[in-house]
Design brief:
122 residues; mainly beta; seven-stranded mixed beta sheet; 11 strands
Length: 122
């Protein structure tokens, strides 16, 4: 089992930035990939991006390319989501997830954090 704990959410004005963190209890072959998803009220869970712990393989949703960046600190077993130029439509609960290959399908990530709320005011 792998436990994931997100932090760093909050309220920010449009155009601002936030950095989310996701600490993993351990790294195993079953969680070689870390992903970020978000879910707004009344909407389906949406893929943001994912990468391997090595950083070699990455994938981003078109909606966040150029604004959001995922990175890792392997020594801390932590993955980050840097969000810049935030928009009100980025308001959602943000979840990190762990799996074993880079993809954009939530169902293929077996491990999930509880989520952290991000609210962007206009």
């Amino acid at each position: 089992q792998v436990q994931l704990v997100e932090s760093g959410g909050g309220l920010v004005q449009a155009g601002g930035s936030l950095r989310l963190s996701c600490a993993a209890s351990r790294r195993t072959p079953s969680n070689n990939v870390m992903g970020w998803f978000r879910q707004a009220p009344g909407k389906e869970r949406e893929f943001i991006g994912a990468l391997t712990w090595s950083g070699i393989t990455t994938k981003y949703a078109d909606s966040v390319k150029g604004r959001f960046t995922i990175s890792t600190d392997n020594a801390k077993n932590t993955v980050y989501l840097q969000m810049n130029s935030l928009k009100p439509e980025d308001t959602a609960v943000y979840h990190c997830a762990a799996g074993n290959y880079v993809n954009n399908e939530a169902r293929l990530y077996p491990y999930w954090g509880q989520g952290t709320q991000v609210t962007v005011s206009s």
